[in-house]
Amino acid sequence: MEPRNQRGVLKFIFLGLTKDPELQPLLFSLFLSIYLVALLGNLLIILAVSSASHLHTPMYFFVSSLSFTDICFSTTMIPNMLVNIQAQNHSIIYIGYLTQVCFVLVFTSLDNFLLATVGYDLYVAICHPLIYTTIMNTCLCGLLSLLSLLISIANVLTHSLMVLHLSFCTDLEIPRFFCELDQILKLACSDTIINYILVYFVASFFFFVVVFLSLESFSLTLRLSPLL
Fold first, then answer.
1. 34-43, long-range: CB within 8 Å, 24+ apart, which pairs?
2. 24, 130, 194, 206: least CB-packed within 10 angstroms?
3. Tell me: the pLDDT tens digits for 183-227?
4. pTM
């Protein structure tokens, strides 16, 4: 297979969960229900936090931010998938695929960072209750959220710039129903070793820094809370 560098005409084909036309309405109804439940549930959380003055605290600020991130993540993936199922069109152009991958990576990274801030907020609230309002002030909450977003965007831009240097072949079938960075790397004809090194490095960073800090915060909270 010869590489194709004309990305403007590239189209990726989603193979989806099944090719059985009788199951397509069932899949459409299932994913539509999941999307509506997720959308409604997260909207109710955001409305409850914004309307109740006693919930205007750092913890509920981060909870509502997580709900908003979840809405954005679901909206990035499911509506396009529903349109493809309904229209029986399982193709997506290169720029559309890459755009969806970018948004998925941004909201996934942001969700991880926000979970880490929730763990830190919980730790401060239980282990340092007397100075909680001093530490977790409005400025720090906004700064943590902004920093999480900037790091997520920087991560996505790095991956996107690396993907733009890849060449693709004629076989562009994807055994999925949504866009993933790993799938686009598997379809590339050019060398992807640098891309995979970057992917593993970022994954290790999220695991050992974000996830570790989150678990450590919750662990310290559970150990110290009985002593308070």
1. 34/78, 35/74, 35/78, 35/79, 35/82, 38/70, 38/71, 38/74, 39/71, 39/74, 39/75, 41/67, 42/67, 42/68, 42/70, 42/71, 43/67, 43/71
2. 130
3. 777 777 878 888 888 888 887 877 776 777 667 766 766 766 555
4. 0.79
